[in-house]
Amino acid sequence: MTDFFFSQAFSGNSNSESAVRHELQQGIVARFLRLIPVAWSEEGRIGLRIEVYGCSYWADVINFDGQGVISYRFKVKKMKIIKDVIALRFKTSESEGVILHGEGQQGDYITLELRKAKLLLQINLGSNQYGSILGHTSVTTGSLLDDNHWHSVVIERYRRNVNFTLDGHTQHFRTNGEFDHLDLDYE
């Protein structure tokens, strides 16, 4: 877990009856807040009364036992995607398993899976029927990812250029073939 410290001093009230309100310009996602009174009141007393209001935050956490699957449907039946960004976090004690898979009727696909505790991204933006254009591209990153710790993955693709990031370490690569759209079915 990475610790991040945000430090800011806020002026408080001048008596025991009034309230002072401060709104942060940017939101903070945190598990803990540490508040430290730094000055005494004019009455010679130190005190703190606080209310913290936050935004609604939903974290989608899904547990799998190796038998389940989650299906996601796009709004349109076919998608011809030139740019996409996929971001997710996972933790597992298993060294093998499919994390994400999508495919289309043209033979295009994207698959993210664990193989021997390494993360494997396979992507195919298309091959032709004669086999002269092969679009399959396979890239592996990381090791020992079956450590039951959270790992962050981001896949950013624009045409054939891909940034594949695992836990802050990015690999840049270009997909094989000549096609630059990912043609996926809606599910």
Features:
single chain, 187 residues, mainly beta, four-stranded antiparallel beta sheet, 10 strands
Walk me through this protein's architecture:
The protein is 0% helix and 34% strand. It has strands at 78-81, 83-90, 97-103, 109-115, 118-124, 136-141, 151-158, 161-166, 169-174, 182-185. The strands form 3 sheets. The protein has a 4-stranded antiparallel β-sheet with strand order 2-7-8-9, with no helix packed on it. The protein has a 4-stranded antiparallel β-sheet with strand order 3-4-5-6, with no helix packed on it. The two termini are 34 Å apart. 12% of the residues are buried.
Structure annotation, total helices: 0
Structural class determined from secondary elements: mainly beta
Average pLDDT confidence is: 80
Number of strands: 10
Largest sheet: 4 strands, antiparallel
Taking the alpha carbons of the first and last residues, their distance comes to 34 Å
- Measured by DSSP, the beta-strand proportion falls in 25-35%
Adjacency order of strands in the biggest sheet: 2-7-8-9
Q: Name the helicity range.
A: under 10%
Which stretches are low in confidence, meaning pLDDT under 50 for 5 or more residues running?
Answer: none
> For the CA atoms, what is the radius of gyration?
24 Å
Would you list the SSEs in sequence order as H and E?
EEEEEEEEEE
The outline comes out as elongated
Protein name: Contactin-associated protein-like 2
Keywords: Membrane, Signal, Transmembrane, Transmembrane helix
Membrane topology: Single-pass type I membrane protein
Pfam families: Laminin_G_2
